[in-house]
Amino acid sequence: MPETRVHSAAVLARVPIFSDLSETELNFLADHAVARRYSAGELIFNEGDPCTGLYVIDSGEVRIFKTSSGGREQVLTVEHAGSSVAELPIFDGGNYPASASAVVDSVLLFISRNDFRALCLEHPEVALKVLRMVGLRLRRLVNIIEELSFTTVRHRLAALLIRLARDSGQRGNRAEFKLTVSNQELASQIGTVRELVSRNLSRFQAEGFIQLDGKTVIISDLDKLAAEVRAGE
To answer: What pTM was computed for the model?
Structure first.
């Protein structure tokens, strides 16, 4: 068995929608998957482009985002290795509903629309798993709409800092982590502009919620910052 097929099959086996496929079925899919490499910041597909297939993230990170007519971006999600991207338009025949770009240098496996639809016809359980995945993402979008509609930039930024602290793998009430993205990217993730992110970070520091040392963020009391988030709900 070629080494590339072995690797692709192992990558696909980690993806939730393919987790129940047999070794033979995974190998069949791996034979039809095409590895594509993207540099950090490179566009994978644009909102409105015809959907030609779905992607599975082998390594790296992919941001899914919408862009307004004025050029402002709203990040819908950032997907990591082991995730699939762009399943929905394969079924409804529409275009890609959002844009995708690589956050860091990334390797993705591309599976054409025809190959994936053929797989779903042979294995309907894959389509059911896609529906569950779409449902989870719909709930995530509803949460984004709620946050943008009912909370301030200050509280959305505080909530994001708490998520980043938790994602850093640290436990306890104190956290220290590095910001790996710019203030512009933070703004895109919480639906605002860079200037407001910079202003609110400075305010959080002045009020003692955080300490900033270059790109390092220190939160000495996560519970205190969480209480600030709850106060804005």
So the answer is: 0.72
